[in-house]
């Protein structure tokens, strides 16, 4: 068993850690009214927050709820800025420790990973197996309503195995078991229907700690598949998993074993997107369709790129984000598209992408 996290709570509560967390939490948002007010008296607010954490009087603030529609309708829950500072104070201290225990081929919400690295890894494997004489198949696993279905008891039990610091566990459990709103959802539930919401399950989409917990939770599946089942071609991006094999019967066996494992250990279910098909038909993964010979960008992905570029262009022109952040988005998309042989698509996406500040427009 990996070494447990011990005696980190004093460092978590330190002014230095909280100040760094404040800097991280305000990135790209520093001119919002709530953050400007916090920043005006930052030392006072951070010292007050430090005392609340040390004295165990800290409680999670109320969530603001709204929907986004990319790539599908999702309920987002946003915390007050003070609570986002706490999330960063936790995340920057313990997520690097958790990350060291993850497998190489886990790509979601990790430094130097991401969708491009995930799809490149799968493309490399498909090219490799495409040259072999035997016909290869893929098993695509998709967790049903993953963020809404994470079991609080199972998550806390997992955290207690990883962490021996009682004060840190107190804080994490306070975040997980927040009673002000139901994070979970019935298996066939609708986020629009309050009657379908559940307590004791789910993580708020929008929380930094939810990203951390999501990876930690499914790392159990990664370890099971790699260490116990001995699967060679296995890649995961959050709750999307692809497994390759030349043995179709074995893939069916893997599916049965995995379904039993996530049901008993993690209290999760597979949804109807789970499938076994020949790799020659192409594998839909993280917004792309991957073939042994080439990559294609899904139409929904190209539309998402266009919307995102329009958004960052507008934010830059209003002085809400710096040029380097815009450039990072552009370079990321260019890096993705250059692997897909989509010259005409690149032109369509970037043809009207000209940056101009608001005051330049008025000259």
UniProtKB/TrEMBL annotation:
The keyword ATP-binding does not apply. Keywords: Nucleotidyltransferase, RNA-directed DNA polymerase, Transferase. The keyword Nucleotidyltransferase applies. GO terms for molecular function: RNA-directed DNA polymerase activity. PROSITE patterns: RT_POL. Gene3D superfamilies: 3.30.70.270. This is RNA-directed DNA polymerase. The lineage of its organism: Bacteria, Bacillati, Bacillota, Clostridia, Eubacteriales.
